[in-house]
Automatic annotation (TrEMBL):
Region Disordered, residue ranges: 317-347
Entries under PROSITE patterns matching the protein: ABC_TM1F (PS50929), ABC_TRANSPORTER_1 (PS00211), ABC_TRANSPORTER_2 (PS50893)
Domain ABC transmembrane type-1: 1-280
GO CC term (a single one): plasma membrane
Protein name listed in UniProt: ABC transporter ATP-binding protein
Superkingdom classification of source: Bacteria
Membrane topology per record: Multi-pass membrane protein
Subcellular location as annotated: Cell membrane
Xref: InterPro entries: AAA+_ATPase, ABC1_TM_dom, ABC1_TM_sf, ABC_transporter-like_ATP-bd, ABC_transporter-like_CS, P-loop_NTPase, Type_1_exporter
Similarity field: Belongs to the ABC transporter superfamily. Lipid exporter (TC 3.A.1.106) family.
Transmembrane segments: 34-51, 108-131, 137-156, 220-245
SMART domains assigned to the protein according to its UniProt record, in alphabetical order: AAA
GO molecular function terms listed in the Swiss-Prot or TrEMBL record: ABC-type oligopeptide transporter activity; ATP binding; ATP hydrolysis activity
Amino acid sequence: MLGVGLTVAGTLCGVIQPLLVKRVIDGAQHGGVASWLLITLLVLFVGEALINTLGHYLLERTGQGVLLGLRRRLVTHLLRLRISVYDERRMGDLISRANTDTVVVREAVAYSFAAFLTSLVGAFGAIALMIYIDARLFLLVVVAVTVAGVGVFTALRRIRTTSEQGQATLGRMTADLERSLAAIRTVRASRAEGREAERIDAHSREAYRLGVRMARLNSVIAPAMELAVQGSVLVVLLVGGVLVAHGVTSLGSLVAFLLYATYLVMPMSQLIEATGIMQRGMGALDRVDAVFALPREPELDAVPDLDATSGLEGTPGLEGIPAAGLDGRPITASPRDGERGGRAESADDAAGSCLIRVIPAGAAGADGAAEAGGSRVAAATGRANPVARAVDRAPAGEDGSSGAPAVEFRGVWFGYTPSQPVLRDVSFTVPGRGHIALVGPSGAGKSTALELLERFYDPDRGEILLQGVDVRAMSREAARGQVNLVEQNAPVLQGSLRDNITYASPNANEAEIDEAVETARLGELVTRMPNGVWTEVGDHGVLLSGGERQRVAIARALLARPAVLLLDEPTSQMDSVNERALTQVMHDIAQERALLVIAHRMSTVRAADRIVVLDEGQVIATGTHERLVETCPLYRRLSATDLEATAPATT
Ligand SMILES: Nc1ncnc2c1ncn2[C@@H]1O[C@H](COP(=O)(O)OP(=O)(O)OP(=O)(O)O)[C@@H](O)[C@H]1O
């Protein structure tokens, strides 16, 4: 570390100077001063200034490098955590750790580490030379410094805990502010600005209280040390003056000793300040380390990280942080015997459950849906099919008529907390080509099933197969390459419309983008926007309507050309014209891909080739719309309710 070396060298230059001053004074008293002494003194003086300037710059640069390295590692880590970790943590607090805590660590590393070292060198150098010059006078200094030292040491110990509490409070404050700003419209509509401000204000006041405590501790420390050293200088001056008067010591020695005593003030107060900052840094590092201890999705370690350390100094305190996550779950799960061949359940209409058909595993397209769908679309569209072109990279052998289905759930059990299962023994298949709808009451576990397919979570029991392969036997990267999920609330990211559409396929060309725009019925929006696809859509896509956001998310998914497309309530925010258009698009997609759609609207559900009904985490029925209306009371109820609800909108 060149910076530290230079600063230490600068300090040594300073430490030697009083010794030379002593020789100059003693020389002057005895007849003459050697000119080389004066020149050396001048060189040391100028050298000290230059070396210190360069050393400080290098140290500051190192600090910035450490900050960069730490932030890059932290950001890389934060984006690769297991999904369940995001469920449990507050985003604002995680952001605060990547933001303010890293700055505190930088201060500790860049400034106080070097300051600690140089002041230690300076203090020890001065002490050694003081003893060399006059050990008796030095004893006087020791007594004064020790008295002050006791108080300072007590204060230093409290700095770390106070600082840690302060940083945690800042984290909570950021999290609460993030909560309010992210839902600012709801806050306004609920006239909750005052309450939100109060919540945040409580943290601000707590941060103030802790800041004041820190100030109190710091204000005790520095003056105590300075008073101690200055007091000892006064005593040395008095006693030393007497000693010089009696010829016990030389005037040169006394001046040099006093210079060292004065010189001691700086390194001592620096040492104390540096220790304080290091204590704060250690507290902040603990908070940063806690983030690094959060488990990552293991396979995402295969995705290249930002090069966190290239050309940068190492980050003290972060050694030994595992590069990989700590996923303790087994990669393979044993298939549940007896379920490979299918599953049957008895009917119990009185209890509200339904007659379930036996679903043979691998019986893709068992309802003859894909074939029927194909001719329907050809007849319905009567035009070149953009989606068929857009999806012309469908892997061979996944047409659902032979081989494994695109998706198969086999006796899947899952709970966000294992003691409370959300999915219970769920089994169903999605053919390589075809449109399957997942329906059921709110909270039945539909979205959870799609999240398991994306491997956001893994089943507690049972298997999920993609093209016949257990998803846990493939990397998450590979699984997500085959499956694309359009989430329920269709998140749109800050950036341009184009950024959003190409988000999953950054290398898409203009023709492909135009095609996806057209297919997702975004053409009119693009024409209307001032800069076409380059128009900014605002934070979270606020400049778009809910339906437009959904269509942007669908365009994004279409462009990614997945083998399996998952849509979670894709038309919930669309008008009936767009919904009908999207239903047609879904048909087109289903000719080439597996399409699994969660839907509440019956118009969307009816378009499916096969419908799977989930209730309280269990598949209670599967079949076509007509069949389920006959056999499944729950489905009948759901469809009747929806038709009632949508009746005014569609007339
Ligand atoms: N991240 C999570 N952590 C804990 N529990 C969750 C989480 N997500 C969902 N749940 C719970 O799991 C259950 C199933 O939720 P899920 O979102 O799968 O239902 P859904 O059928 O999609 O409902 P909806 O139709 O209302 O979207 C619910 O009881 C829900 O409260």
